[in-house]
Amino acid sequence: MKTLKINKIILLLIGLVVFNACVQDDEFSTPDTTVTEPELNGNVIELTAVAGDIGQLHGGEVDFENDEDFVMYDGEGPITYVQGYVISSDEGGNFFEEIIIQDKPENPTIGFKVLLDVNPLFIRYEVGRKVYIRLNGLYAGISNGVLALGELDGERIGKIPASSENEVVQRSAEVATIVPFPLSIEEFTEENNDKTNLMIRLEDVQFKRSEAVGDDALTYAGEPSDEFDGERTLESCAGSASAVFSTSTFADFKGLKLPSGRGSMTAILSKDFFGEIFNVVINSPEDINFEDVERCDPFNIDDFNIVYEEDFTDGLAGWDVINTVGTEAWEADDFGGDFYARASAFQGSGNPAATMVSWLISPSFDFDAQADEQLVLEIADAFSDAGEEPLSVYYSTDYTAGSDPSTATWTEIGADQIAALPINTGFFDNEYDQTDLIDLSTVTGNGFIAFVYDSENGSISSTRDLGNVKIITPM
């Protein structure tokens, strides 16, 4: 009995010694997470230099549609690094085995996708982290429509193996604050292909109403029809432009509903899988700030009473066509069952535009018979010049039908609404765009609406087709 007690005491003492030893050992083994500036044994260049190397393959300009030609950096040559700042994060699952880097934290000029067969990456390469990529043995070119760095995989740029990560990618101690580059959806054009792989800021945008509002609002990428990516429509409130908002079906937030309001967004500008269509991609839903509940949806014509409508199925009957300059005039026509009134100074390819000012004036309308009138137009266009808009809209309450319009008083309306319509620089495509509401609520008495085509002394050749004219009032 006495021996058993002594043994228990000895075991208790041993346990206390071991416990204290463990505590002390833990205190001394706390990992050091400090990142020190790497000692690079080679030359450091800018991302713009790599883009310049790619451009040299095609006369100095990067061909974003060519994904077959690559720049190879000699694995045995002098060691060269390219530096950049990380702007992507795979923490939310919307990026996979790639980091996106741009050349500067603020006002960037170029960005690259770096393919790495490693997951996850955000732990080591957080947003703002400066990195150095060893170019030796890598290939640079176009992948899915954007600039990319990686190893060659057959006839395309592939991923850098996980075993090579520490040799190829070096972390700097610098973590910069990334200032998103201001860009609008209207600027998603071929001329701005070099803005892909940049962190951008979109102002005053919203998701399409049918996708984001109501009981049937969509998730980011959790619908049965979403296979690889969920593609939603992002709209500009500054005009009629829209863009594809893409979310991976592997994103952690794929099942969340789209925000229904409007506001700003920080995102990375990219392209779709085929490298053809601009895509907007976020790191996480926190990058979206849609706090404004007042949306900018176009009006719904079904919510209004139509008190006057002209679709030109009877030609220009009842309308005045009067030229004040030249002989080219408004005329009625139809295409594929669509009737319209057309004005154009276009005289054929290679020929100068006609000098013309032609008026198309409506029948008289009684503005006192109802209140809060609004004008809505449907317009198609073709061969549009980069210059001034040839079409203007006016109203008058002292015009006399059939008389010289220059003797009446005319007030211009709808300039902003017409300017907001998309422009077609090619052949007539029979696609009509509807203007936003043009206010006529202050007009009293009997009045006339005039559509004036002015080629500005032959400097504008654009074609304008007026497919429908409606005067509407609230229900």
Descriptive account of the structure:
- This protein is mainly β and 475 residues long.
- The protein is 10% helix and 36% strand.
- The chain has helices spanning 2-28, 47-55, 165-168, 209-212, 415-419, and strands spanning 43-45, 71-72, 80-86, 98-102, 111-115, 129-134, 139-143, 146-153, 156-158, 169-175, 181-182, 199-207, 229-236, 242-248, 262-271, 278-281, 288-292, 304-310, 320-325, 331-335, 338-344, 357-361, 365-366, 374-382, 391-396, 411-413, 433-434, 438-439, 446-454, 463-474.
- The strands form four sheets. Strands 1, 2, 3, 4, 5, 6, 7, 8, 9 and 10 form a ten-stranded mixed beta sheet that branches.
- Strand 8 (146-153) and strand 9 form a beta hairpin.
- The longest helix is centred in the first third of the chain and has 27 residues, at 2-28.
- 33% of the residues are buried.
- The model is unreliable at 1-32 (pLDDT under 50).
List keywords for this structure.
mainly beta, 5 helices, ten-stranded mixed beta sheet, 475 residues, 30 strands, disordered N terminus, seven-stranded antiparallel beta sheet
* Percent of residues in helices: 10-25%
Distance between the termini: 100 Å
Mean pLDDT: 91
Can you summarize the main beta sheet?
A: 10 strands, mixed
Instruction: Work out the radius of gyration.
Output: 32 Å
Strand proportion, as a percent range, falls in 35-45%
Q: Give the class from helix and strand content and strand pairing.
A: mainly beta
* Number of helical regions: 5
Residue stretches low in confidence (pLDDT < 50, at least 5 long) are: 1-32
Shape: elongated
DSSP summary, beta strand count: 30
